[in-house]
Design brief:
- By secondary structure, the chain is an alpha/beta fold.
- It folds into three domains: 222 residues, Rossmann fold, CATH 3.40.50.980; 65 residues, Luciferase, Domain 3 (Luciferase, domain 3); 99 residues, ANL, C-terminal domain (GMP Synthetase, Chain A, domain 3).
- Helices cover 34% and strands 27% of the residues.
- The chain contains 18 helices and 26 strands.
- Strands 2-1-10-9-11-12-13-14-15 form a nine-stranded mixed β-sheet, sandwiched between helices. Strands 16, 17, 19, 20 and 21 form a five-stranded antiparallel β-sheet that branches. A four-stranded parallel β-sheet has the order 4-3-5-6, sandwiched between helices.
- Helix 3 links the parallel strand 3 and strand 4.
- The mean pLDDT is 92.
């Protein structure tokens, strides 16, 4: 069943309910929301977008984002949300790889994106206007027929090697992860609010799905991004407000609350994830903001739905302090209800409770596979189990503690940064002969990007910084460069990043 039926159903029985807010203003109700999606579907069909075709959204958060997204689903097409922080060259590669027929982009990004699409030899309609959503001359299309397993969302992630991979999710996975959020993060009733300071293109954006299904309100901040004071003010205005926040965002919320001198009002749940939350930071957040926190652990391949630490569980651990409560509070919680969780050895066998191994998960919420990459899919899903690449351990009570991530992945401010992409950008410079990128632990951001570079004499950090800005997103560029005569390697010529991390720890100390 097409995921768009969720919006249609809510509009039928609750059309007058507030659907989308912009700042403190009501932007539309559910009847208007569904009508915009239906007209958008008509417009897409007029452009030749058929069921199964891909449509990319390279946009910052804005209230129009949600009707656009749902118009793609209403038309039976596949949404390809692209992080607006990416470089237009990176966005163009994703659009080309997905075969997106139409791309919605912000005005400022359109010229560079069109130039990058030419470099990729990919033709697509690049659209910056949204008038078709409110063009009442357009008829409202019926919801296109789609099966549960048909692709609905292509989420581009990547491992530590190679280009990004398109995670294919159908209506089945989107509904299951929506049920997971409803069960583990925040039950939704009409009038409950989801704020969207985090990018709608990523995991935080998926928080909007149960709010559409159950008639809640999705609110896009006027800043179109994250501002701690604005988030707290919006929660106080709308009441019963929840939102997703990376650990870096939580720290800024705590500082904003402390500066105000009073406990925030109107909060329901702040769901944190996307990076490690230090126990001391969580304890301070609970003290300053109150008992409003839950946690989720997932990845694009099993969206938002591997483990969870619901709000009631965090609060019980803090209040009752049973044996091992601090270790449990520092974990990523217990398996969500729609998945099986297992920690396994390199041969794929479960390890005893307390032993270390690779985190594996299976269930209907696991991806269909990687878009047009059957070999990568076969390597990631073995006998029905998704191999996450994360290292952890399960205790006797079912709490999962993550010990490491896939070997080289960097998470900074809750955003994944893949060293290979940064290294490839550095190596495009004529004066760089070798480069290796690692993450340095950072109290505010989680990790900072550090580049070790073998280069010709005279090359400067400023030159490399400018070079990176020409080829990759700003947030991916190294914060520190270290020029070395050679990189440490093993007998097979592979760079030893463990040695680089040791060097960097000594240098930082």
């Amino acid at each position: 069943m097409n995921i768009a039926h969720d919006l249609k159903r809510t509009a039928q029985h609750g059309g007058s309910l507030v659907a989308i807010g912009h700042g403190t203003e009501v932007w539309c109700n559910y009847r208007e929301f569904a009508a915009m999606a239906a007209r958008g579907a008509t417009w897409l069909a007029q452009q030749g977008v058929q069921p199964g075709a891909r449509v990319a959204l390279f946009l910052h958060n804005r209230p129009e984002y949600l009707p656009l997204l749902w118009s793609v689903w209403w038309a039976g097409a596949v949404a390809v949300p692209i992080n607006a922080k990416l470089h237009p060259k990176e966005a163009a590669w994703i659009a080309a790889h997905s075969g997106s027929r139409c791309i919605f982009a912000d005005d400022d990004d359109r010229p560079a994106l069109q130039g990058a699409l030419l470099d990729e030899r990919h033709e697509a309609l690049v659209e910056t206007g949204f008038t078709h959503l409110v063009d009442h001359a357009l008829p409202e299309a019926p919801v296109a027929e789609r099966a549960e397993h048909d692709a609905a969302w292509l989420f581009y992630t990547s491992g530590t090697t190679g280009r990004p991979k398109g995670v294919e999710l159908g209506a089945r996975q989107l509904r299951w992860q929506s049920m997971g959020l409803y069960a583990a993060v925040q039950a939704v009733e009409p009038g409950e609010v989801a704020l969207h300071p985090a990018p709608l293109s990523h995991g935080g954006g998926m928080l909007h799905l149960p709010y559409v299904t159950y008639g809640g309100i999705n609110v896009v901040p006027k800043s179109h991004g994250f501002d701690a004071d604005e988030c707290l003010a919006l929660a106080a205005h709308w009441q019963r407000a929840s939102f997703f926040a990376a650990p870096t965002m939580v720290k800024r919320l705590v500082q904003a609350a402390k500066s105000s001198g009073r406990r925030p009002l109107g909060l329901a749940t702040i769901c944190y994830g996307g990076g490690p939350m230090y126990l001391a930071d969580l304890e301070e957040a609970l003290q300053v903001i109150g008992p409003h926190f839950s946690q989720i652990y997932g990845q694009g391949e099993c969206p938002m739905t591997i483990t969870a630490m619901p709000r009631h569980l965090i609060n019980r651990l803090c209040q009752q302090r049973p044996q091992g409560w601090r270790e449990h509070l520092a974990s990523v919680g217990v398996a969500q209800v729609m998945v099986e969780l297992s920690v396994r050895d390199p041969q794929g066998q479960p390890v005893p409770a307390g032993d270390t191994g690779e985190v594996c998960v299976r269930g209907d919420v696991v991806m269909n596979g990687y878009w047009q990459q059957p070999e990568a899919t076969a390597a990631a899903i073995v006998d029905g189990w998704l191999k996450t690449g994360d290292v952890g351990r399960l205790d006797e009570q079912g709490f999962l503690t993550l010990l490491d991530r896939s070997k080289d992945l960097i998470i900074s401010g809750g955003t994944n940064i893949y060293p290979r992409e940064v290294e490839e950008a550095l190596l495009m410079h004529d004066d760089v002969s070798e480069a290796a990128v690692i993450g340095r632990p950072d109290a505010e951001w989680g990790e900072q990007v550090v580049a070790y570079v073998v280069a010709r004499s005279g090359l400067t950090e400023a030159t490399l910084d400018a070079h990176c800005l020409d080829h990759i997103a700003r947030f991916k560029r190294p914060k520190h460069y270290r020029f070395v005569a050679e990189l440490p390697k093993n007998h097979y010529g592979k760079v030893l990043k463990t040695t680089l991390r040791e060097w960097d720890a000594q240098h930082a100390a």
